[in-house]
Amino acid sequence: MKTIMDLEIKKADRPIKVMQFGEGNFLRAFADYFIDILNEKTEFDGDIAIVKPIPFGNLDNFKKQDNLYTVVLRGRKEGKVINEPRVVTSVSKVIDAKDDFDEYMALAHLDTLRFVISNTTEAGITLKEDDHFDGLPESYPGKLTKFLFERFTFFKGDKTKGLIMLPVELIDYNGRELKRCVLALADIWNLGDEFKNWLENANVFCSTLVDRIVTGYPRGEVDKICEELGYTDNLVDVGEPFGLWVIESDKDISAELPFAKANLPVIFTDNVKPYKDRKVRVLNGAHTASVLVSYLGGINIVRDMMHDEIFGKMTRQIVDTEIVPLVPLPIEDVKDFANSVYERFDNPFINHELLSISLNSVSKWKARVLPSFKDNYNKNGKLPKLLTFSFAGLLAFYCSSDLREDGLHSKRNNGTEYTVHDNPDVLKIFAENSKKAEEDYVKVIASNIDFWGEDLTKYNNFVKDVTNYLIKIKQNPACAVKYILDD
């Protein structure tokens, strides 16, 4: 079979405008994919230099394939099944920050460089106060600070040579946190007030929200995919069609990144929070509010849950009636987002297991479901029945006294064994109280302020209703859902 190099793709000679920390699957199927489309459909005319920031891994496949690779987007979009490959040509070079240190630092001298994208894991944006300035710093903020100081020095503090930072690490306000770390290191390393002023005034640290499921290299089906492509690609990268990039900044940078002209799903804003709330409440909240009771009812993967007459109806009603109306964005935008979530849940190419989603459901319910629960209660003066029912589903899923080293072991009504994975201290409390009468069990868990940040028993009828739902779920999860939907 041919290789991707046999396609004889002629890459355009474009200037490097983007430096990217991280060569992983997500960035390649998201940011680099978007920039490739920018180059095709607009006058952006800019390439990416990828910097491998950690010792782990190698760049051999990039070099063998002239930095070419294929992104395959598979799933549902606007009612249609999508299976679309694209050869990405936006990466012009890859550099190992340690082994190619001089080449890495030379990027700071490029007049054309304007953007820095990063995905160094959630732990990557962390202040390491004992990081060293000499040589290659250990932390990502350290590497970036040294790089920016090199650029500041080379261009003699020219304010037109600042950069726009676009971190996509999955932490709240990632840009603000990255800036805080960089400024702190500038102080620790005594890099001077002029440099700090240049950091503040010539550079832009954006906070971002990104959303796309990227499953990466398809190990189990790579031969089939390459057969469909007609060539082999050792860097093939698989993701879903849905994508969203929300970019928050104090300065308007939309003209420099003309995503709108390319019809790409990018939102520029001065406040990323409403979009984060929408994602957490609608997408993540739908998962957490529905998968536990669905699993107890015999469902194993998300797609089957959505197709099920009972549990699929429950999931949609939770979102449509008790989550969407309370999200602080225009209602039509939120409805459109919810519809895209339903399509994502129904992706025929991804078998998303409910048990994998169930991990750490106590903290997830607090972060993803409780805000919608409280908004409903405060607005309507009564319990939102479906979100209250989801709490009972959580208590039913966690109801076992069989605590072992690997988690809390339990069984579905059909005899299927499963293991609950959560913080050991959380599991211990459930195990110690699961044999109590249902109402007492509900009171102990619902009143645990360490779990929920407040005492949930203070909400009128909460203990009574959760107890009623819990008893019904234990007897028959599907019948319990039908009961709550018909109520």
If you had to describe this structure to a student in words, what would you say it looks like?
- This protein is of the alpha/beta class and 487 residues long.
- The protein folds into two domains: 2-269, Rossmann fold (3-Layer(aba) Sandwich); 273-486, Orthogonal Bundle (N-(1-d-carboxylethyl)-l-norvaline Dehydrogenase, domain 2), CATH 1.10.1040.
- It has 20 helices and 18 strands.
- The strands form five sheets. The chain has a six-stranded parallel β-sheet.
- The longest helix has 24 residues, at 273-296.
- It is globular, with a radius of gyration of 25 Å.
Report a brief summary of the structure.
This protein has 487 residues and is of the alpha/beta class. The protein has 20 helices and 18 strands.
